[in-house]
Inverse folding.
């Protein structure tokens, strides 16, 4: 717990308590961890709220004793309470204390594995979304290519038509030129005849 102003800040959730006692109660009540340490249980939950619910339902529903008090069922506790809710709080405290007396490594590794798995899932989701987008873009590109191919084919046809037209124009031009040459030759012949006369 870090001191800040008049309060104490929970290092796990940022909750502010106004005294060290309340800060400790907050930690032990709320931050019970994800594993039930009630002897013989060993249930795991994915949130502390779920684990508190499990503890309250499965281990905290005790009947009142002959003295009218509710006894905490945690082994070697023997706490007697006027209200059943106080038994649940006692069980939360035990669970928190037990969790924090356990070697942390296996739990930390589990949490880390979950985080890594979640990161991988998030990345896979991103990659899948990207692939879907890519495939949409590829389909759009393929559709544009189809259009371009059609255009290119009709351009080729036009080019062939123009080439055929040019060939025809050239042929008729050559014909006219040939005729012109013949005429010139004839005229030249007449001219030379005239000069000889
Ligand atoms: Zn907290
Ligand atoms: Zn349990
Ligand atoms: Zn107890």
């Amino acid at each position: 717990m870090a001191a800040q102003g008049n309060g104490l800040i929970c290092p796990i959730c940022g909750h502010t308590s106004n005294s060290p006692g309340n800060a400790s109660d907050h930690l032990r009540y709320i931050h019970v961890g994800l594993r039930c340490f009630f002897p013989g249980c060993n249930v795991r939950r994915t949130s502390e709220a779920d684990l508190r619910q499990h503890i309250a339902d499965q281990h905290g529903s005790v009947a009142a004793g002959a003295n009218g008090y509710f006894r905490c069922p945690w082994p070697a506790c023997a706490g007697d309470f006027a209200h059943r809710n106080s038994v649940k709080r006692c069980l939360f405290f035990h669970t928190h204390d037990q969790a924090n007396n356990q070697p942390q490594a296996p739990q930390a590794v589990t949490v880390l594995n979950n985080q890594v798995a979640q990161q991988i899932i998030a990345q896979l989701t991103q990659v899948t979304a990207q692939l879907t987008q890519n495939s949409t873009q590829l389909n759009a590109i393929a559709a544009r290519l189809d259009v371009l191919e059609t255009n290119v084919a009709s351009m080729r046809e036009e080019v062939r038509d123009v080439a055929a037209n040019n060939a025809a124009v050239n042929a008729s031009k050559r014909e006219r030129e040939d005729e012109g040459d013949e005429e010139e030759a004839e005229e030249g012949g007449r001219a030379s005849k005239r000069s000889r006369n």
About this structure: The first strand starts at residue 2 and ends at 4. Residues 105-196 form the longest helix (92 residues). Helices lie at 20-30, 48-59, 84-101, 105-196.
